Amino acid sequence: MNAIATSSSHGYGAQITRIPRDTEYDAFARVTRLLRNASADNDRLKIIDAVDHNNRLWTILSSDLLSEGNKLPDNAKAGLLSLADFSLRHGRAVMLRKLSVEVLIDINMSIMKGLRGEVQA
Q1: Is the pLDDT of residue 6 over 50?
Q2: What are the b/e assignments for 73-102, b being 16+ CB within 10 Å?
Q3: Which pTM was predicted?
């Protein structure tokens, strides 16, 4: 297991142990919060910035999925790469004012639920 003990303490001095899944969840949470806030403000510059952050996250994820060291099953990699491609294309359309940012938020929320092991119906 690739656990990372952080230097900050939690509770009664116990160290927090983080796994890569936690880091991935945090990255999706930050980007999704940017998307939500930009959408709520209906601010074009904020939306473009948030979508840019989302696109960078999905690009990094795609690179990781394609790396030789990635241990996910091939069908999971293929599904995530397809989702990454869709998210990137949708993000470009959002920037061109053709589509809504809400779909990107929904996708990210689904990924976050999966990272937390929540069962989706």
Answers
A1: no
A2: eeeebeebeebbeebbebbeebbeeeeebe
A3: 0.81
